[in-house]
Amino acid sequence: MKLKEIFSGADSGGAPGGVEVSGLAVDSRLVKPGDLFFAIAGAHTDGHLYIADAIARGARAVVTERDCEGYGSERLPFIKVKDIHASLAVCVNAFYNCPSARLEMVGVTGTNGKTTTSYLMESVWSLAGRRPGVIGTINYRINGETVSGSVNTTPHALLLQQLLNSMAEGGSQSALMEVSSHSLALKRVDGILFDAAVFTNLTRDHLDFHSTPDEYFLAKRKLFEMLSSRENPKKNRLAVLNGDDARCAQIRQTLSRDVKVYTCGLGEKNDFRAENIVPRLEGVDFTLVAPEGKFDVSLKLWGPYNARNALSAVACARGRGIAMETALEGVCALERVPGRMEAVREGQDFHVFVDFAHTDSALGEVLTALSGFPHDRIYTVFGCGGERDRGKRGPMGTAACSKSAHAFITADNPRREPLERIFGDIESGLAAAGLSNYTVIPDRKEAVFRAIASARKGDIVLLAGKGHETVQILHDGPVSYSDYETARQALKALK
Length: 495
Prior knowledge:
Number of helices: 15
Low-confidence stretches: none
Helix content: 25-40%
CATH architecture of the largest domain: 3-Layer(aba) Sandwich
């Protein structure tokens, strides 16, 4: 494809029209002869440092935000842009001929519940014969087959559009996407034409990246602005909103009149609501009240909050033309979501759960729900990520210790930040709350073993924060680690 065609919708300052490129790259190590290389300055490295490497590997042209003296020539043009993230999104979309125009696009955003909601929708959409692809936190899937593990909840624009193109060419009718606030702020999803958008909730998170809660919300709201955009030609567009969330009204004000809106929640004014919620350690039962009547629902997923996630999935399905019978059968058929209140069973007489809860609100909600079941003691293992929002560390400690008999504070992807500072932030919050029922154990495997060894018949052990993850990110990089497998080892050791 010629550069002029690739940059037709981007602010390029004049890309040479006659130059032909055969591919796009953002990593110099992956450049092939004839590629267009985007030199992007990231959080930990700078693509400009690898321009020479990209050229040596055969890059046909380079895109940059900077003046790069001595590199550009008529044979190897350098294209300067004002916003390289926006330009990348536009160029990739053009190169792959706008895959989202060939798919039913459903985006799910919110602080908690994105992954579970996307899994529930995948079950429904598959049952309806729409062969969905899924892009999310755990992995990327096309027609039920895992393509790769997840790099980011929403990958960079190049990988994202490549995945969507593979879905469209592979026979998928729909793409179900978790849309993160980072991806919206960094314009990774620019140019995608959404048919539907789902808002699960908004609580404190990612304030290391977004400076304020309002900035965090505005990033989330951008998905609904895209849904409503005049440039979006999709018909029968749909917004599914958590009607119980305080931010719902602000999102609704963003929507154009031709976007249909369904609200979900527990409040009586919601279009889809859950009544008579009865949580079980094996799942949750509730009555679904919808515009067309009342329906009994029995989920295999643990946790009363999953009633809300199921409401979102059913409401979105109905708004996208899927029969209620199919929607209900689909949400009830899903047996598990990796690392989301996943039970670990090795014949023990107490309960062990692995969950991804990594905010104070999510952790508090899980522990509150667990407290409602017959039990003697609850033991919680948790930590807080390094080089991330320090302000949530104290509240997470308070959530864990106030709702547990004992908590074990440990490492959770400390990255390059000293564990002493992370633990100090947590303990400061606990001291202010007057809580001391905890033990600090830096090594996460040791903490899991200690918690499980402490449990007796009828107790509950919650391993929170890492969920599906299979690595621990330390100062020197990632090492292999899984809460689920570590728990299995600990339980077998008890025997």
